[in-house]
Amino acid sequence: MTDVNTATAHASAAGIGRALGTGARRLLGGRRVGIVDKLAFALVALLVVVAIVGLVVTPHDPFGVDTKQALLPPGAGHLFGTDDVGRDVLSRMLAGAGRTLLVAVGIVIASTAIGVAVASLAALAPRWLDETIMRVCDILMSLPSLVLALGLAAALGPSMTSIVLAMIATSWPATARLMRNILRETMTSSYVESARILGMSRIRLMRHHVLPNSLDAIYVQASMEIAGTIVMISGLAFLGVGAPPPSPDWGSLIAAGQDYITTAWWIALFPGLAITVAAIAFGLAGDAIRSSVDPSSRRS
Amino acid sequence: MDTTTPLLTLDRLSVSVPERERIGGGVGDLTLVEELSLQIRPGERVALVGESGSGKSMTARSILRLDPHLRLAGSIRWKDQELVGAPERRLRRVRGREISMIFQDPMTALNPVLTIGEQVAEPLTVRGMPKRKAHAKAVEMLDRLGVPKAKERMRAYPGQFSGGMRQRVVMAAALVAQPDLLIADEPTTALDVRVQEQVLDLLEEQSREMNLAVLFITHDLGIVAGLAHRVAVMLRGCLVEERTVDDLFTCPEHPYTRGLIGSVPRLDADPDVRLKTVADYMSTEGATTHA
Amino acid sequence: MPEPLLKVDGLQKRFGRGKNAYQALTDVSFEVGQGEIVGLVGESGSGKSTIIRCLVGLEKEDAGTISYDGIDPVSASKADLRRYRREVQMVFQDPYSSLDPRMTVQEILEEPMLVIGGFSPADRRARIHELIDMVGLLPEHLTRHPRHFSGGQRQRIAIVRSLVVDPRVLLCDEPVSALDVSVQAQVLNLIKDMQRRLDLTVLFVSHDLAVVKYLCTRLVVLDKGVIAETGDVPAIYDAPQDPYTRALMEAVPVPDPVLERARRARRLEAAR
User: Fold this and answer.
1) Which residue among C44, C211, C249 sits closest to B192, beta carbon to beta carbon?
2) pLDDT the model gives residue C54
3) Are the beta carbons of C211 and B265 separated by less than 8 Å?
4) Which residue does chain A place closest to B22, by CA atoms?
5) Which of A13, A254, C36, C67 is the most exposed, having the fewest neighbouring CB atoms within 10 Å of its CB?
6) CATH of domain C4-97+167-271
7) Beta strands in chain A (DSSP E)
8) Which chains reach chain A with 3 or more Cβ–Cβ distances below 8 angstroms?
């Protein structure tokens, strides 16, 4: 019986591995997927599931204060221990995953959308407008997001919204600059010219030929940005720009644990590890997507 | 028949892409070159002709093992050593010094941030020749290849040269270490006809003066007529015909060879006579071809 | 010469500004008669492609006029411009970059008819099937993407795309120079056949005088943006007047070892 069970377990593990492989492979345009890439995609998938589930269900109440349970080290009851007011660290991390990862993904989607829209406008615009838009982007890119976020927090009060707005405001110009160059280059390819000759409108050209053929670059750019955004929003939260306590986002968890780092190391350590693992996983997944799209590693 | 010992002997050389390296998937290894045998003697000019995808470039690149992920079988004998399975260290001794290679695009073959002089002298300095001596040899080589004011142009950058001049510079860098064999992979395809003619003339001249063997890779049979001693024709990874240049052009045996010759537009031909294509010859002989 | 259909008069084009400025075309004028195949020949940088790009509006000429069947595309009415865009079509050099990789062959071939307008779905279907049959492609090719085709097949697809809207003039920008010699012959024969069957007027840009001799009836030789020589193909090939034309002609290799060796010997002798 046990044998059968282990066999099924093996089979299903292999099945999941294969499914992951084919999924990743489809995502990567038919390229063979290395073990590292597979692991990265598996981790990203796992993190996203955890982030969503964690918003609804956790082993303990992430906000339930119980001072009798305060500062318990990692053990059977509380896998990652408890914090200074007796809240379960694991539960708070799970609840905070969504507030960290999903927010990061949301920021990247929003800033990419704005960036691509601005880039399309610049690519279609006459030279002077194109130049103006790009110079504005340059100016915005030179604003440090940290300072902007601190300023916004001062104006709006510390909240997740301040972080999101600051991050979007500072990250879209880089996307816009990059995408504008990619779109301009795609516009010089002969298939776009051949449609232009027929008198196709510039907006239709953009929609039919230029944007679809620049999508790869958009995906790559976005996927590479998620890792940095996770680190950045955690950093801002750590500095106190983010949502006020008792928000369980990972940056705030580390901030809350820093006073106890010598006595109750687990409060800060586990959220710190989570940020590291998440950043590496998203980074590697982004890298895998990039190398699959990179023409030098793909022959037709 | 020439009886000198061959410089290079390919004996049933096969080149394939292992299954795990195949891009876009696919089952099993993908064979690019199949059991190809070819000999090149000192000073001999051999043309390897075929369409894109025929495996001609892969054969040439495999001699220097430029694509380490490819699997080689059979034998590549260079002088008295075996190159298939040879350690990288030994290949490095052969590359550039004994066998050098030039490529199709002279625009990307040169490093834009290094001077012409540094690049032409590099094959010598890399092997420890004193800078001054290497420099002098580089000037001499550029001069031989007809680069005007060679001494002054040593300090110039590739961006300041035209396509034809760059191909001369590339050739100078390839020949400065006095190799025994030069592999030229479509070196004139990106050039204008007049420049192409100059490059072909230079190749022939240098080959004669330096007793340099040349393996010339091209899709155009027309341009090798005056250059090669022997021509080898490749089709889908296999050698289909190998003859002296005169025999090949006067009585080509394989229908594919006849197709290649027939499809070259000629200045001395009647334009009303329809240009033959490979398909014309292959289909009449019952073979199939991919357009 | 037959009735001129396409006229280029005093075309000027300069690229870049200041020190890097580069005169691509200097006062270029020529005519192409109905049903002619005119070869536009020169080396890289001679401006031959720039002329075609001006003709289709991808570049804007600095001075000079273009006229096709009485239409000047610069000042034409909307209806005339539409007719111009329909009746003057272009085939690009590189069949690897001239087909949108994300579209199926069917979508690629339908696009010109959709953009120009006035073709019913039944018309579109009929024209595509008729033309792919003429160039030797199969109906099942229509659902595939360009990456599944060889260079020669792609160039056939590109030729069909230029012909679906029933043009009268075909502008070919080095359509065979990116192809293997063996495939080049097939595409040249195809262009020749289509020209006869559809009574096309062709302007054929090339750097290869042997190709032009095979295909063209008349020749315009360009040297650094200036016309060096024009004339009928047999006359120019028998006795080229301009030294540049002669030099280009002499550089064309002959697929004959004996002739080639003799030629080289003569060249080396002359150099000495």
Assistant:
1) C44
2) 95
3) yes
4) A32
5) A13
6) 3.40.50.300
7) none
8) B, C
Residues from chain C that touch A198, judged by Cβ atoms under 8 A, are: 85, 111-112, 115-116, 165
Asked if A213 lies within 8 A of C56 by C-beta distance, the reply is no
pLDDT at residue B38 in the model: 95
**Residue B235: closest CA among chain C residues belongs to which residue?**
C182
Q: With CA atoms as reference, report the closest residue to C161 among C117, C112, C98.
A: C112
Helix, strand, coil percentages for chain C (3-state, nearest 5): 45, 25, 30
Task: For A10-22, write each residue's pLDDT tens digit.
Answer: 444 455 555 555 5
Say if CB C91 and CB C173 are below 8 A apart: yes
Q: With CB atoms and an 8 Å threshold, state whether B226 touches C253.
A: yes
DSSP A49: H
Query: Does residue A207 sit at the B interface (CB-CB below 8 Å)?
Result: no
Q: Which residues of chain C have pLDDT under 70?
A: 1
**Could you read off the pLDDT of B121-156 as tens digits, one per residue?**
988 988 888 989 999 999 999 988 888 888 889 999
Would you call B25 and A32 a contact, using CB atoms and an 8 Å cutoff? yes
Residue A6: give the domain boundaries.
2-45+102-245+267-297
Query: To 10 degrees, the CA torsion angle through C180, C183, C189, C191?
Result: -70
Mean model confidence pLDDT for chain A: 83
The CATH number given to whatever domain includes residue A34 is 1.10.3720
A190 to C92: CB separation less than 8 angstroms, yes or no = yes
| Structure confidence at residue B24 (pLDDT) | 63
* pLDDT, position A18: 53
Q: What is the mean pLDDT of residues A167-195?
A: 91
Give the pLDDT confidence score for residue A258 in this predicted structure.
87
C51-110 pLDDT tens trace: 999 999 999 999 999 999 989 999 999 999 999 999 999 999 999 899 999 999 999 999
Considering the domain boundaries, does residue A31 fall inside one?
Answer: yes
Strands (E) across B130-257 are located at 181-185, 213-218, 230-235, 238-244
| Domain assignment present for A55 | no
Neighbours of chain C (3+ CB pairs under 8 A): A, B
Q: Verify whether the Cβ–Cβ distance A31 to B22 is below 8 Å.
A: no
Q: Is there a domain that residue A22 lies in?
A: yes
Question: Which pLDDT score, from 0 to 100, does residue C193 have?
Answer: 94
Number of domains within chain A: 1
* Among C146, C107, C106, residue whose Cα is nearest residue C129: C106
DSSP C250: H
**Whether A30 and B20 lie within 8 Å, measured CB to CB:** no
Q: Which of B205, B227, B267 sits opposite C254 (nearest CB)?
A: B267
Residue in C159, C173, C138 with CA at minimum distance from that of residue C52: C173
* Domain boundaries of chain C, sorted by first residue: 4-97+167-271
Instruction: Say if A86 falls within a structural domain.
Output: no
- Residue pair C255/B249 in contact by the 8 Å Cβ criterion: yes
CB contact under 8 A, C92 and A198: no
Confidence of residue A28 (pLDDT cuts 50, 70, 90): low
- At residue A25, the pLDDT reads 54
